[in-house]
Amino acid sequence: MTSEPPPARVQATDAPGQPEPTPRLKELYRTFEQHSLIPLWTEIGGLMPPQPAPAAVPHLWRWAELLPAAEESGELVPVGRGGERRALALANPGLAGRPFATATLWAAIQYLNPGENAPVHRHSQHAFRFVVEGEGVWTVVDGDPVAMRRGDFLPQAGWHWHGHHNRTDTPMAWIDGLDIPFQHHIDATFFEFGPDDVQTRATPEHSASERLWAHPGLRPLTRLRPTPATPLLAYRWEYTDRALAEQLALEAEGHAVTLEPGHAAVRYTNPTTGADVMPTLRCEFHRLVPGTRTAVRHEVGSSVFQVFDGRGEVGVGEATWTVERGDLFVVPSWQPLTLAAETGLDLFRFSDAPLFERLHLHRSHQEGHDS
């Protein structure tokens, strides 16, 4: 037996443009409630604000606090069926206790003890791992073992079998990013258990995906079909670092190749299309030289940043923080963002930008320039 949902509440209001709250009008509103109707004239301010008004708020999580919490979880909480992953989700204070960093993005710190398996499963959500420190864990995607090391970006499209195994005698932590909130909101999620054990007998220097796809500018003729998500399972730090260093070197030689003066940036892309690595997630890496301050920028859509190295100051909305290695912060939709590097500042960023661009809803504003 199911219960009827409570009727919608319609409140007479004294806001400008509203009709006088007469007894007859109040009776009409009661009729609306009985028939589950809500008049637009009482709600338009909340449904159609003049600019995005996200429930998510700017927030900072300190790595120096996250990592000890993950380490203690490693001592007290087993990993295996049931919980599946020992992961601590970043819960935005504006989202009423939901385990979401923003309304569309999930971010978490995952922790694996020596010799542990995170068992195999698959899900419709697109995901990635980014390593801010450590090595020794292998993620195995559809049987392809992929090494995880500091600075590596490891994407994994939805509905692929994957598990993790720590082959070393030291624990390891990294961040996970997924589109869980988005798929949850649109009722599109699927999940399936796989084997309990992660098969990691083979630990090659390069995964099969890297051997096929990780050759800059070269695309194998045997795999010409474009794929909506990247088939490359590891974007190695040495290539990211070199690309950023070369941008700044060319800038120093007088070439206008950086995003802003002193601000180099690269985007991880799908080698079959040149588009974003996943249909719902954009992932980038930014490097600011000491003393650089970016222009204030607003964007529709939300982002999560992690400081990979260095120290600097971040302004999001009305909040300002000093940040350093490992710290994570959230930029909600249309909140002003500025970055300033005290030392050199390296930042990993992921966002929901592909969703808004596909829907033709993306908009940005920087120093009087709209796009």
Automatic annotation (TrEMBL):
Residues of the Cupin type-2 domain: 110-176
Which Pfam family is one of those matched by this entry?
Cupin_2
What is a GO molecular function of this protein? Answer: oxidoreductase activity, acting on single donors with incorporation of molecular oxygen, incorporation of two atoms of oxygen
Q: Which domain of life is it from?
A: Bacteria
Q: Which UniProt keywords apply?
A: Dioxygenase, Oxidoreductase
Q: Is the keyword Oxidoreductase assigned to this protein? A: yes
Q: Does the keyword Oxidoreductase apply?
A: yes
Q: Which SUPFAM superfamilies match?
A: RmlC-like cupins
Region (Disordered) spans which residues? 1-22
Report the protein name in the record.
Answer: Cupin
